[in-house]
Fold this sequence. Notes:
Layout: H1 5-15, E1 19-24, E2 30-36, E3 42-43, H2 48-56, E4 60-61, E5 69-70, H3 72-77
Antiparallel strand pairs: 1-2, 2-3, 4-5
Amino acid sequence: MKISRNEQRALHVLALGGRILHERESGPKITSVICVTREGMILSDLDMTIFNKLKRKRLIESRCGSPYHISKRGRLSVRAQPDNQGA
Length: 87
């Protein structure tokens, strides 16, 4: 499965404990998304297009209306990246 650089970046943030907060106006359709890291920072690269691609590929999931997290399939698909937090 081909995963773009922005999709990889979002999956990496989610794998480290981040989440995607979503908003709905009226009805079941999601109108906006915000990717929040474990530390509370906002990932600006995630937009509705990338969110829909991740959702269509079943790399992220939400249960009972909670924020979106990485799925098992997403954890297996994300490529390893060096963690800069210890530097």
